[in-house]
Amino acid sequence: MRAAEEMLEQRDGAVATEARTGFTGWRRTDLWALLGFLALAVLVMIRLWIDPNGRVLDGNDDDHGIFLFMLAHGERVVFDGAPPFFEDHLNAPVGVNMMANTAILALSLPLAPVTHFLGGGVTVAIILTFGLAGTAAAWYWLFARHLVRSRRAALVGALWCGFGPTMISHANGHLNFVNQYLVPFIVWQVLRLREPGRAVRGGITLGLLILLQIFINEETLLFTALTLGVFVLSYAIMRPAEVRAVARRFLAGLGVAAGVSLALAGYPLWYQFFAPGNYHGQPFAPTDFVTDLLALGAYPRQSVAGIEAVTQRLSVSATEDNTFFGPVGLLMIVVALRMLWQNAAARSAAIAGLVLLLASMGPRLQIGGVKTAIPLPFGLISHIPVIDLVSVTRFAMVPAIIAGILLALAADRIDGSSPVRRRRFWIGMTLALVPLFPKPVPTIQGDPLPEFLTAGIWKQYVPEGRTLVPVPLPEVTTGRTAQRWATLQNLDFAVPRGYFMGPADPPDNHTGSWRAPARPTSELLTMVQATGLRPVISDAERERIRADLVYWRAAVVVLIPRAQNAAALRATLTDALGKPQLIGGVEIWDVRSLVGTG
Q1: 479 and 65 Cβ atoms separated by less than 8 Å
Q2: Most exposed among 340, 418, 514, 564, judged by the fewest C-beta atoms under 10 Å?
Q3: What does the record list as coiled-coil region(s) (predicted)?
């Protein structure tokens, strides 16, 4: 296809035969490259591998917890016959719409035996490790087979796309974003739709890839679709006659792909947007989390040259360092674009990257952590449905990948230049890549699971249809230990509340929220945990606590020993429920008789 051939042009004139198809055959060198990707992925995740079920990712322990929940749900689907799109053992008695969350069913279901027998922590380590290595390997395949002639160029592109600052950042807890190995295949299948005879066969293949990506991460699929849309539009403006000649079969292939994917994913998508537990929008404004202009040339915190204090000022969290190319890296991206400027396909890719980069900056420009009054185009589209579900800064993942593509193409083209230019180019590339070499992601030791859970003592207190109420309650940030304990037990018992995405306060407010709607007891316990102050429990307060326990269908209340302000929480619960029992390493309040057996 012409767009791909343009990307392969290395010199003025015709394209070499080998350049049209990439490498003529796989060699031992390619095997070493793939093993190198795996070794580097293990290095990045080595601290988690030391104790997968005992350690927690320090960069984003909240999201580590929510993905443990996703994996526990997958285990319940396979081993307990739970419905795949709904989970009733978190946020009991309401449950969670799993399609409205990042359920990663394409990963959690096949790996359910690992979760069941070895624990969700091991599954997290496997998914993150093979996600990094697999993404790099997939891009290496695309470069090697279709875009470049040089193995060195393919390696540069694969390392940037698989282990660049964006991917290493998301390895701090975003299992969904790290597993991007389907993206190169989706991109290639879309581009191939313009070939004669590909409309049906290629459309079916593309539709199946889209289906799989839906069950890994829909945001990545949205970013890919937007990028390809801008790319095709830009290329059509530059080469209108060529695009008109293939438009019919290209659109026919897209139609087949859309039909296949919608036919197979129609019900899950309906469930996501219309079944109970659906929500609209995010629990934050689009101005809250955006790409800072200075982040383009700074080093990420997880690189050997990164400075934590600088990165923190320019980034919203450790899992959102979506640019951070470094000063020399940014310079080399500009150099690569200048080298490829005569190539319409490369220009179109650069335009797509620039459009998504501008989108990631939100409605107003931010520089050095300071929000300016300079308006940006995203303000015009920020409230469009689906777009309003995206964390804005993540649009910058697109230019990060396109930067890797441009660097690979430039590295391939430089082979045809003079020795002086080649030497200068590779010196620049070395200075760009070495400071970005990733450090192992940080971890902390999680609270150990008590014997009350690990020995199954809880089964004596929690009959079928009732819940175990851990205190602090499972919540985003404040109740991460409770959620981790429940999910490492594969949700064998149901718990109220939790960290997940759902409506803020249905039926009146369906705005997205990271927590269940507030109840008197949850607000009281959150206040006690935060302040350490013991409130005066009135008879009316006791009635409200009882009502919440009835609502949650509680059987036993369990105090987490190392919780913040555990003494104040214990005193509050004792005042409300009486003296606790010390059983299996935890203090519990048996409330089966209080709540009743109905």
Answers
A1: no
A2: 418
A3: none
Domain around 242: 2-53+119-436
Does residue 432 sit in the same domain as residue 455? Answer: no
Note the pLDDT tens digit of each residue in 157-169.
Answer: 999 999 999 999 9
Q: Quick one: pLDDT at residue 10? A: 40
The residue out of 382, 405, 436 marking a domain boundary is 436
pLDDT tens, position by position, 524-546: 999 999 999 999 999 999 999 99
Peptide bond into 93 cis (omega under 30): yes
Q: Is residue 428 part of a domain?
A: yes
CB pairs under 8 A, 24+ apart, for 75-83? 75/108, 75/112, 75/115, 75/116, 75/120, 75/490, 75/491, 76/490, 76/491, 77/105, 77/108, 77/109, 77/112, 78/109, 78/112, 78/113, 78/116, 79/112, 79/116, 79/490
Q: Output the CA–CA distances (angstroms, integers) from residue 587 to 156, 301, 337, 565, 590, in the order listed.
A: 55, 40, 63, 15, 10
Is residue 171, in this structure, part of any structural domain at all? Answer: yes
Does one domain contain both 322 and 359?
Answer: yes
Please give the Cα distance from 168 to 400 (Å, whole number). 12
Contacts of 39 (CB under 8 A, 6+ apart): none
| pTM score | 0.94
Q: Helix, strand, or coil here: 559? A: strand
Question: Do 32 and 151 reside in the same domain of the chain?
Answer: yes
Q: Are 532 and 442 in contact (CB under 8 A)?
A: no
- Taking the C-alpha atoms of residue 360 and residue 520, their distance in angstroms, rounded to an integer, is 38
3-state secondary structure of 92: coil
Residue 316 backbone phi and psi in degrees, to 5: -80, -25
- For residue 263, the one-letter residue type is A
Number of domains in the chain: 2
Which of these three, 379, 408, 436, is where a domain ends? 436
Task: Please report, as a single letter, which amino acid is at residue 51.
Answer: D
- Amino acid occupying residue 496: P
Are 387 and 499 contained in the same domain? no
Residues 481 and 413 occupy one common structural domain: no
